[in-house]
Amino acid sequence: MSHTVQEKRPVAAPPHATLSHARLPRWAPAAIAVGSVAAGCLIGFVAGLESRIQWGMISALLFVAATYLITAKVEGSRQGKDRIATSLVWVCFALAIVPLLSLAWITVTKGTTVLDGYFLTHSMSGLLDVEEGGGVYHALLGTIEQVAIAAFIATPIGLLTAVYLVEYGRGRLARAVTFFVDVMTGIPSIVAGLFVLATWNLMLGFGPSGFAGSLALAILMMPVIVRSTEEMLKLVPNELREASLALGVPQWRTILKVVLPTSIGGITTGVMLAVARITGETAPVLLLVFGTKLINPNPFEGAQSSLPLYVYEQYSVGTTASVDRAWAGALVLIAFVMILNLVARGIARWKAPKTGR
Hints:
72% helix, mainly alpha, flat, 357 residues
Protein backbone atom coordinates (compact mmCIF):
# COMPACT_ATOMS: atom_id res chain seq x y z
CA MET A 1 0.00 0.00 0.00
CA SER A 2 1.39 3.30 -0.98
CA HIS A 3 0.82 6.49 0.84
CA THR A 4 0.84 9.77 -0.93
CA VAL A 5 2.23 12.57 1.15
CA GLN A 6 1.08 15.97 0.05
CA GLU A 7 3.30 18.85 0.93
CA LYS A 8 1.46 21.65 2.69
CA ARG A 9 2.55 25.02 1.58
CA PRO A 10 2.08 28.04 3.88
CA VAL A 11 -0.77 30.25 2.90
CA ALA A 12 0.42 33.70 2.02
CA ALA A 13 -1.03 36.50 4.16
CA PRO A 14 -3.00 39.23 2.45
CA PRO A 15 -0.97 42.28 1.53
CA HIS A 16 -2.83 44.44 4.08
CA ALA A 17 -2.41 42.05 7.03
CA THR A 18 0.52 42.96 9.30
CA LEU A 19 1.56 41.95 12.80
CA SER A 20 2.18 45.51 13.92
CA HIS A 21 0.25 48.69 13.33
CA ALA A 22 1.64 52.09 12.62
CA ARG A 23 2.40 54.02 15.78
CA LEU A 24 2.84 57.68 16.48
CA PRO A 25 6.27 58.67 17.79
CA ARG A 26 6.64 59.41 21.48
CA TRP A 27 7.07 63.10 20.88
CA ALA A 28 3.76 63.32 19.01
CA PRO A 29 1.58 64.27 22.03
CA ALA A 30 3.98 67.05 23.00
CA ALA A 31 4.07 68.32 19.42
CA ILE A 32 0.27 68.24 19.23
CA ALA A 33 0.07 70.14 22.52
CA VAL A 34 2.47 72.83 21.31
CA GLY A 35 0.62 73.17 18.04
CA SER A 36 -2.74 73.35 19.81
CA VAL A 37 -1.51 76.09 22.15
CA ALA A 38 -0.12 78.07 19.23
CA ALA A 39 -3.34 77.66 17.24
CA GLY A 40 -5.49 78.56 20.26
CA CYS A 41 -3.49 81.72 20.93
CA LEU A 42 -3.71 82.68 17.26
CA ILE A 43 -7.47 82.15 17.20
CA GLY A 44 -7.91 84.13 20.40
CA PHE A 45 -5.77 86.97 19.11
CA VAL A 46 -7.53 87.14 15.73
CA ALA A 47 -10.97 86.91 17.36
CA GLY A 48 -10.10 89.72 19.77
CA LEU A 49 -10.58 87.65 22.94
CA GLU A 50 -8.99 89.48 25.87
CA SER A 51 -9.26 86.69 28.42
CA ARG A 52 -6.31 84.30 28.46
CA ILE A 53 -8.63 81.73 30.00
CA GLN A 54 -10.60 81.65 26.75
CA TRP A 55 -7.36 81.16 24.83
CA GLY A 56 -6.53 78.22 27.10
CA MET A 57 -9.96 76.63 26.67
CA ILE A 58 -9.69 76.89 22.89
CA SER A 59 -6.22 75.32 23.03
CA ALA A 60 -7.53 72.48 25.19
CA LEU A 61 -10.39 71.72 22.78
CA LEU A 62 -8.00 71.80 19.83
CA PHE A 63 -5.62 69.47 21.66
CA VAL A 64 -8.31 66.86 22.32
CA ALA A 65 -9.71 67.06 18.78
CA ALA A 66 -6.32 67.00 17.07
CA THR A 67 -5.14 64.08 19.22
CA TYR A 68 -8.14 61.99 18.23
CA LEU A 69 -8.02 62.85 14.52
CA ILE A 70 -4.28 62.25 14.12
CA THR A 71 -4.30 59.06 16.19
CA ALA A 72 -7.37 57.67 14.42
CA LYS A 73 -5.73 58.38 11.03
CA VAL A 74 -2.44 56.68 11.93
CA GLU A 75 -3.30 54.05 14.54
CA GLY A 76 -7.01 53.49 14.06
CA SER A 77 -10.22 54.63 15.70
CA ARG A 78 -9.81 52.36 18.73
CA GLN A 79 -6.48 53.89 19.65
CA GLY A 80 -7.94 57.30 18.88
CA LYS A 81 -10.63 56.80 21.52
CA ASP A 82 -7.97 55.67 23.98
CA ARG A 83 -5.94 58.81 23.26
CA ILE A 84 -9.07 60.94 23.87
CA ALA A 85 -9.29 59.59 27.42
CA THR A 86 -5.58 60.20 27.97
CA SER A 87 -5.73 63.74 26.58
CA LEU A 88 -8.77 64.55 28.73
CA VAL A 89 -6.81 63.46 31.81
CA TRP A 90 -3.95 65.77 30.85
CA VAL A 91 -6.34 68.64 30.18
CA CYS A 92 -7.99 68.18 33.59
CA PHE A 93 -4.54 68.05 35.21
CA ALA A 94 -3.62 71.32 33.51
CA LEU A 95 -6.90 72.92 34.59
CA ALA A 96 -6.13 71.92 38.19
CA ILE A 97 -2.44 72.83 38.27
CA VAL A 98 -2.54 76.16 36.41
CA PRO A 99 -4.63 78.00 39.04
CA LEU A 100 -2.46 76.51 41.78
CA LEU A 101 0.75 77.66 40.12
CA SER A 102 -0.78 81.06 39.40
CA LEU A 103 -1.81 81.48 43.04
CA ALA A 104 1.60 80.39 44.28
CA TRP A 105 3.36 82.75 41.86
CA ILE A 106 1.21 85.76 42.82
CA THR A 107 1.62 85.03 46.55
CA VAL A 108 5.40 84.70 46.27
CA THR A 109 5.70 87.79 44.07
CA LYS A 110 3.57 90.03 46.27
CA GLY A 111 4.57 88.47 49.59
CA THR A 112 8.31 88.94 49.22
CA THR A 113 8.01 92.73 49.01
CA VAL A 114 8.08 93.14 52.81
CA LEU A 115 9.06 89.65 53.93
CA ASP A 116 12.39 89.80 55.71
CA GLY A 117 13.94 89.14 59.08
CA TYR A 118 12.42 92.27 60.60
CA PHE A 119 8.93 91.23 59.47
CA LEU A 120 9.28 87.79 61.05
CA THR A 121 10.65 89.03 64.38
CA HIS A 122 8.44 92.04 65.13
CA SER A 123 4.76 92.56 65.91
CA MET A 124 2.30 95.36 65.20
CA SER A 125 2.60 96.75 68.72
CA GLY A 126 2.47 100.55 68.81
CA LEU A 127 1.91 100.80 65.06
CA LEU A 128 -1.23 101.79 63.18
CA ASP A 129 -2.44 99.49 60.43
CA VAL A 130 -2.15 102.28 57.86
CA GLU A 131 1.52 102.88 58.65
CA GLU A 132 4.46 101.08 57.11
CA GLY A 133 6.57 98.63 59.06
CA GLY A 134 5.49 96.12 61.64
CA GLY A 135 5.69 92.36 61.48
CA VAL A 136 3.94 89.04 61.88
CA TYR A 137 5.72 87.55 64.88
CA HIS A 138 2.73 87.75 67.23
CA ALA A 139 0.43 86.10 64.69
CA LEU A 140 2.95 83.38 63.84
CA LEU A 141 3.45 82.58 67.52
CA GLY A 142 -0.32 82.40 68.06
CA THR A 143 -0.82 80.09 65.07
CA ILE A 144 1.92 77.72 66.20
CA GLU A 145 0.49 77.46 69.72
CA GLN A 146 -3.14 77.14 68.65
CA VAL A 147 -2.47 74.52 65.98
CA ALA A 148 -0.17 72.56 68.30
CA ILE A 149 -2.78 72.46 71.08
CA ALA A 150 -5.54 71.51 68.62
CA ALA A 151 -3.41 68.72 67.16
CA PHE A 152 -2.47 67.52 70.66
CA ILE A 153 -6.19 67.23 71.51
CA ALA A 154 -7.61 65.92 68.25
CA THR A 155 -4.92 63.48 67.06
CA PRO A 156 -5.11 60.88 69.88
CA ILE A 157 -8.91 61.08 69.99
CA GLY A 158 -9.15 60.64 66.23
CA LEU A 159 -6.64 57.78 66.15
CA LEU A 160 -8.30 55.89 69.00
CA THR A 161 -11.74 56.37 67.44
CA ALA A 162 -10.51 55.01 64.10
CA VAL A 163 -8.85 52.03 65.80
CA TYR A 164 -12.08 51.27 67.63
CA LEU A 165 -14.18 51.44 64.46
CA VAL A 166 -11.83 49.19 62.45
CA GLU A 167 -10.57 46.73 65.05
CA TYR A 168 -13.30 46.52 67.68
CA GLY A 169 -16.40 48.38 66.49
CA ARG A 170 -19.53 46.27 66.19
CA GLY A 171 -23.20 46.92 66.74
CA ARG A 172 -25.13 50.10 67.50
CA LEU A 173 -22.32 52.01 69.17
CA ALA A 174 -20.05 51.70 66.15
CA ARG A 175 -22.86 52.78 63.82
CA ALA A 176 -23.64 55.75 66.06
CA VAL A 177 -19.97 56.82 66.14
CA THR A 178 -19.74 56.52 62.35
CA PHE A 179 -22.89 58.59 61.94
CA PHE A 180 -21.65 61.41 64.17
CA VAL A 181 -18.24 61.41 62.48
CA ASP A 182 -19.97 61.84 59.12
CA VAL A 183 -22.06 64.67 60.52
CA MET A 184 -19.04 66.42 62.00
CA THR A 185 -17.19 66.20 58.70
CA GLY A 186 -19.59 68.62 57.07
CA ILE A 187 -20.13 71.19 59.81
CA PRO A 188 -18.98 74.74 58.98
CA SER A 189 -16.14 76.17 61.02
CA ILE A 190 -18.38 78.94 62.36
CA VAL A 191 -20.64 76.31 63.97
CA ALA A 192 -17.69 74.83 65.84
CA GLY A 193 -16.74 78.32 66.96
CA LEU A 194 -20.26 79.09 68.17
CA PHE A 195 -20.40 75.79 70.07
CA VAL A 196 -17.19 76.55 71.96
CA LEU A 197 -18.32 80.15 72.50
CA ALA A 198 -21.61 78.98 74.03
CA THR A 199 -20.03 76.34 76.29
CA TRP A 200 -16.50 77.45 77.15
CA ASN A 201 -16.98 81.22 77.14
CA LEU A 202 -20.61 81.89 78.03
CA MET A 203 -21.60 78.89 80.19
CA LEU A 204 -18.26 78.34 81.96
CA GLY A 205 -17.30 82.02 82.01
CA PHE A 206 -13.87 81.87 80.40
CA GLY A 207 -12.66 84.82 78.37
CA PRO A 208 -11.07 84.91 74.92
CA SER A 209 -7.87 82.92 74.60
CA GLY A 210 -5.88 80.89 72.16
CA PHE A 211 -6.97 77.71 73.95
CA ALA A 212 -10.62 78.45 73.20
CA GLY A 213 -9.75 78.76 69.53
CA SER A 214 -7.81 75.49 69.73
CA LEU A 215 -10.89 73.72 71.04
CA ALA A 216 -12.88 74.78 68.00
CA LEU A 217 -10.02 73.82 65.68
CA ALA A 218 -9.77 70.41 67.36
CA ILE A 219 -13.46 69.80 66.65
CA LEU A 220 -12.76 70.47 62.97
CA MET A 221 -9.71 68.19 62.97
CA MET A 222 -11.26 65.11 64.57
CA PRO A 223 -13.53 63.85 61.75
CA VAL A 224 -10.79 64.29 59.14
CA ILE A 225 -8.33 62.28 61.23
CA VAL A 226 -10.91 59.59 62.00
CA ARG A 227 -11.93 59.11 58.37
CA SER A 228 -8.41 59.12 56.92
CA THR A 229 -7.02 56.84 59.65
CA GLU A 230 -9.95 54.48 59.28
CA GLU A 231 -9.30 54.05 55.57
CA MET A 232 -5.58 53.53 56.12
CA LEU A 233 -6.19 50.85 58.76
CA LYS A 234 -8.55 49.02 56.42
CA LEU A 235 -5.77 48.76 53.85
CA VAL A 236 -3.59 46.73 56.23
CA PRO A 237 -3.85 43.06 55.10
CA ASN A 238 -5.69 40.81 57.53
CA GLU A 239 -2.96 38.22 57.08
CA LEU A 240 -0.62 40.42 59.13
CA ARG A 241 -3.12 40.57 61.97
CA GLU A 242 -3.78 36.82 61.79
CA ALA A 243 -0.08 35.99 61.75
CA SER A 244 0.52 38.10 64.84
CA LEU A 245 -2.47 36.68 66.68
CA ALA A 246 -1.43 33.14 65.74
CA LEU A 247 1.85 33.71 67.56
CA GLY A 248 -0.07 34.48 70.75
CA VAL A 249 0.35 38.25 70.60
CA PRO A 250 -2.57 40.09 72.23
CA GLN A 251 -4.78 42.14 69.96
CA TRP A 252 -3.83 45.47 71.51
CA ARG A 253 -0.16 44.71 70.99
CA THR A 254 -0.84 43.58 67.41
CA ILE A 255 -2.49 46.91 66.73
CA LEU A 256 0.35 48.82 68.36
CA LYS A 257 3.26 46.92 66.81
CA VAL A 258 1.88 45.69 63.48
CA VAL A 259 -1.18 47.58 62.27
CA LEU A 260 -0.22 51.14 63.18
CA PRO A 261 3.41 50.97 61.97
CA THR A 262 2.26 49.47 58.67
CA SER A 263 -0.12 52.35 58.00
CA ILE A 264 1.91 55.15 59.61
CA GLY A 265 2.51 56.90 56.28
CA GLY A 266 -1.17 57.22 55.43
CA ILE A 267 -2.07 58.17 58.99
CA THR A 268 0.51 60.95 58.95
CA THR A 269 -0.88 62.23 55.67
CA GLY A 270 -4.38 62.34 57.15
CA VAL A 271 -3.19 64.23 60.21
CA MET A 272 -1.38 66.74 57.99
CA LEU A 273 -4.52 67.23 55.90
CA ALA A 274 -6.42 68.00 59.07
CA VAL A 275 -3.72 70.42 60.21
CA ALA A 276 -3.73 72.13 56.82
CA ARG A 277 -7.50 72.54 57.05
CA ILE A 278 -7.51 74.23 60.44
CA THR A 279 -4.41 76.37 59.91
CA GLY A 280 -6.25 78.70 57.56
CA GLU A 281 -9.47 79.00 59.57
CA THR A 282 -10.46 82.54 60.52
CA ALA A 283 -14.04 82.36 61.85
CA PRO A 284 -13.36 80.41 65.09
CA VAL A 285 -10.32 82.59 65.82
CA LEU A 286 -12.32 85.75 65.26
CA LEU A 287 -15.03 84.57 67.66
CA LEU A 288 -12.90 83.03 70.39
CA VAL A 289 -9.41 84.57 70.22
CA PHE A 290 -10.34 88.14 69.17
CA GLY A 291 -6.87 89.04 67.91
CA THR A 292 -4.36 91.54 69.21
CA LYS A 293 -1.34 93.52 68.02
CA LEU A 294 0.65 92.56 71.10
CA ILE A 295 2.77 89.46 71.62
CA ASN A 296 0.88 87.08 73.90
CA PRO A 297 2.88 83.87 74.50
CA ASN A 298 0.24 82.48 76.90
CA PRO A 299 -2.51 80.69 74.91
CA PHE A 300 -4.60 80.13 78.04
CA GLU A 301 -5.21 83.75 78.96
CA GLY A 302 -5.99 86.89 77.00
CA ALA A 303 -6.59 87.66 73.36
CA GLN A 304 -4.16 86.24 70.84
CA SER A 305 -3.59 86.69 67.15
CA SER A 306 -3.09 84.14 64.34
CA LEU A 307 -1.90 84.22 60.75
CA PRO A 308 -5.34 83.91 59.06
CA LEU A 309 -6.77 86.61 61.29
CA TYR A 310 -3.72 88.79 60.68
CA VAL A 311 -4.11 88.46 56.90
CA TYR A 312 -7.81 89.27 57.13
CA GLU A 313 -7.26 92.32 59.34
CA GLN A 314 -4.44 93.74 57.22
CA TYR A 315 -6.18 93.22 53.90
CA SER A 316 -9.41 94.78 55.19
CA VAL A 317 -7.56 98.04 55.96
CA GLY A 318 -6.91 98.52 52.25
CA THR A 319 -3.76 100.65 52.28
CA THR A 320 -0.67 99.74 50.30
CA ALA A 321 1.38 98.95 53.42
CA SER A 322 -1.34 96.79 54.98
CA VAL A 323 -2.01 94.88 51.74
CA ASP A 324 1.72 94.15 51.43
CA ARG A 325 1.72 92.82 54.97
CA ALA A 326 -1.34 90.70 54.17
CA TRP A 327 0.40 89.08 51.19
CA ALA A 328 3.52 88.49 53.27
CA GLY A 329 1.41 86.92 56.03
CA ALA A 330 -0.26 84.65 53.47
CA LEU A 331 3.16 83.57 52.22
CA VAL A 332 4.29 82.82 55.76
CA LEU A 333 1.11 80.78 56.30
CA ILE A 334 1.75 78.70 53.16
CA ALA A 335 5.38 78.17 54.14
CA PHE A 336 4.29 77.14 57.65
CA VAL A 337 1.96 74.44 56.32
CA MET A 338 4.58 73.25 53.82
CA ILE A 339 7.23 72.92 56.49
CA LEU A 340 4.85 70.96 58.71
CA ASN A 341 4.10 68.57 55.83
CA LEU A 342 7.78 68.04 55.07
CA VAL A 343 8.62 67.38 58.72
CA ALA A 344 5.71 64.97 59.10
CA ARG A 345 6.68 63.12 55.91
CA GLY A 346 10.22 62.78 57.18
CA ILE A 347 9.07 61.40 60.53
CA ALA A 348 6.67 58.98 58.83
CA ARG A 349 9.41 57.71 56.52
CA TRP A 350 11.76 57.34 59.47
CA LYS A 351 9.25 55.41 61.58
CA ALA A 352 7.77 53.31 58.76
CA PRO A 353 8.70 49.61 58.73
CA LYS A 354 11.65 48.83 56.50
CA THR A 355 10.92 46.69 53.44
CA GLY A 356 13.19 44.65 51.25
CA ARG A 357 15.84 42.05 52.03
